[in-house]
Amino acid sequence: MSNEIAILGAGMHPWGKWGHNFVQYGVAAAREALADAGVPWQDVRFVSGGATVRCGYPGYVAGATFAQALGWQGAEVNTSYAACASGSQALAAARNKILSGECDVALVVGADTTPKGFLAPAGGYRPEDPDWVRFYLGITNPTYFALYARRRMDVYGDTLEDFAAVKVKNSKIGAHNPRARYKKQFTAEDVAASAMVADPLRLMDICATSDGGAALIVSSVEYARKIGKGDAPRVAAISTTTPTFASSVVEMPDIATDSAAAVGIDAHSFRSTLPLKAYEEAGIGPGDVDLAEVYDLSTALELDWIEDLQLAPRGEAAALLRAGDTAIGGKIPVNVSGGLACFGEAVPAQALAQVCELTWQLRGEAGDRQVQGAKVGITANQGLFGHGSSVIVKR
Amino acid sequence: MSDKPLAPAIDGWHTMEVKPHLIGTQCNSCGSYFFPMNHAYCRNPACDSTEFSEVELSRTGHIWSYTNASYKPPEPFVAAEPFEPYSIAAVQLEKEQMVVLGQVIEGVSCDELKVGMPVELVLEQLHETDDDIKMTWKWKPVKA
């Protein structure tokens, strides 16, 4: 299809709390992606960075910061901020440049360092900022994940054991991922013994914050063929759609949903609308997908995503999990990278990290994590203020 | 509670009566409700109205979901010492067809809540300052 671009290279700095500046993570990831692609840095004509807002001035101009660190060579530059979808928007910017014929090869890179504990808003008395309001009223990020989890329990009959099983599954596979932060294989007993954070979610149900970096070298399909990589995995779709009015699920950081009281407006959830454009753009359906990398900010949220991606009917993701179908060797493996459960959040990097994993999987280079015969993978994530993304990679 | 005067934690978001209401707005053109108040532009994509009426929202609804805060949230939250966990509910207002988050009244644990349970709006202390007691809305379970 005409809107496809090739993924020539993928790279990551191992995630964890390493104490470095975010630029160091990004440069390491970029150099690995360049080496993987076999493309000289000077040939990259567009640098697309995911912004980080917790690292001061350079973070706001991440694209240029990485370009300078790698050595100015006159490429065009771009920085994208879209909360957890920053990496996907940076990838979309690179795709647009390539498809418009303005460049052949682009570097897409995101990296971050994150503070320990709860993410908190800026200070002062600022009731006009919904992020400030919800913290003032005592509503943190885990509150939202827990509301979704508890609803699954009361409406679909999901159990605490189901949620723990997601953590057990992801940590079992992620423990062998050399780039993951956490290498411990958690048991259901470990999850149950961890401290309650937001009922029904315990500490081991919720992902940590982390430092990390991820990068991709992408190009036109013609360029890929020219350098002998015509069979490289392709980005077949990028969806960064916003919600549609009236979204019926209360989304961070808002304390109320849209009102669906006006005549003729159907209420629906934002998450489920994100992959629709991706499927349409790639010209495939959920049945064509071999594996998925989704945003397990909480164990229960992985189950929501499986249904939002239409990999299981609404309310039946736990049944899929119980049957082993979302594990390696199952019908539709989910988060074989280990997911955020094993990586932690490094906001501008994580949407790219998902695409890196799909790239390695589709090239058959994922080692212990390999999903046999994987041809199509999908990612999904969601952040603040209507930012989210879904990317389809195929081979 | 001390004898300091009562003041809303955030001005103009709810009435201060015994049976309080959240204060929202309703679009004069399409009828969509907004909370907190929106006076500027209708967020219904099919409506470009800039005319809104202030309305008191329904003070009863049904629980859409619920959880609790077992850990003390960061600032600007002002926690009592020692910190006491509290419950939180997302409540569906039927007429407005919207969900509004808020704490559940003190002393109600998650074990006592259920999706679909009817609740009503009350005021309770959020925190105390040197000058007054900051009140906010909370959800209180009611007998069906």
Automatic annotation (TrEMBL), chain A:
Cited Gene3D superfamilies: 3.40.47.10
Matches recorded under Pfam families: ketoacyl-synt (PF00109), Thiolase_C_1 (PF22691)
Classification via PANTHER family: ACETYL-COA C-ACETYLTRANSFERASE (PTHR42870), NON-SPECIFIC LIPID-TRANSFER PROTEIN-LIKE 2 (PTHR42870:SF1)
Gene Ontology molecular function: acetyl-CoA C-acyltransferase activity
Domain Beta-ketoacyl synthase-like N-terminal: 61-114
Residue ranges occupied by any Thiolase C-terminal domain in the UniProt entry: 277-393
Identification of the protein by name: Lipid-transfer protein
Species of the source: Halioglobus maricola
InterPro entries the record matches: Ketoacyl_synth_N, Thiolase, Thiolase-like, Thiolase_C_2
TrEMBL record, chain B:
Highest taxon, organism lineage: Bacteria
Annotated ranges, domain ChsH2 C-terminal OB-fold: 54-123
Domain ChsH2 rubredoxin-like zinc ribbon: 20-52
SUPFAM superfamilies: Nucleic acid-binding proteins (SSF50249)
InterPro entries reported in the protein's UniProt record: ChsH2_C, ChsH2_Znr, NA-bd_OB-fold, Thioester_dehydratase-like
UniProt name for this protein: Zn-ribbon domain-containing OB-fold protein
UniProt source species: Halioglobus maricola
